[in-house]
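Hi all, long-time lurker, first post. I run a small reading group and we've been trying to get comfortable going from sequence to structure in the token notation. Rather than ask abstract questions, I figured I'd post a concrete chain and ask someone more experienced to write out its structure so we can walk through it together at our next meeting. Sequence below, copied exactly:
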Amino acid sequence: MKKKVVVALGHKALGTTFPEQQTALKASVPILADLVEEGAQLIITHSNAPQVGMIHTAMNEFAKFHDTYGAPMSVCSAMSQGYIGYDIQNALRSELLKRGIYKTVATVLTQVTVDPYDEAFYHPVKVIGRYLTAEEAAAEEKKGNYVIEEPGKGFRRIVASPKPLDIVEIDAINALVDAGHIVIAGGGGGIPVLKQGSNLKGASAVIEKDLVSGRLADLTDADVLMLLTNEEFVIVGYGTENPVPLKQLTPAEALKHIEHNEFGKNKMLPKIEASVHFVTQRPGRKAIITSADKARDAYLGKTGTVIS
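-- Answer (accepted) --
Happy to help. Here is the structure in token form:
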């Protein structure tokens, strides 16, 4: 029986610009195809930070010079999911066909519900868009948006990063996965939305990608959550004289490391939190954190940090 595996691609796997993304995927897609060859039923999610920032900047610059409305963050997120998914699904389909494997690869634009009263909305942390002048920053604040000053550089807009609650399209995702298709979903943490009766309203926010990856793995009842990063192992004491790679972790051990602030708040910490939540929801699950080039070996149990 095939293992259901949620794989989260990081920024390095996608690059930043359109040409960089094409080049990066030439290296990333064979890694995904390797997992398919090893019998994994893949569900793919991915980063989108540079891409959504680029779209947000372009759309709002266009609006400024053409006297029209800028694009809300939710729309920018949807656009980034669309074009990143388009590139991944085409590149992966082509790679699989070269290997004699026929698999349909489909992208699902994914909405993720968040709590309108989440404390994150009062303490935004995600920087988005280009540098602003003081005048532009004041205009953003007048509209109710948050900005932060970077001394000597200018001002940047910042948005909230609320916790994900539910995935709106989960039934469609599960139907595709159960039918044997490879699915790309939850890109960039999904499109954050607020429930308003029977309607969904886009929120001005960016959800942490790794937390949505863990939620996606849970709601698809995956066997494995694989979070690909720059390092082969999770390391405590990173950047010190005595770094220690962690190869096996229980959820309890991971939580102790979190209590001691041993993981980077915006880098490794969300991956550990997502992993712990995923493996503790049902027995028999495991999370793997490793570098992209070690994905196949990690899937086969030869390397990587395993939380189970």
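A couple of things your group might point at:
Residues 8 and 45 are 5 Å apart (CA to CA).
The radius of gyration is 19 Å.
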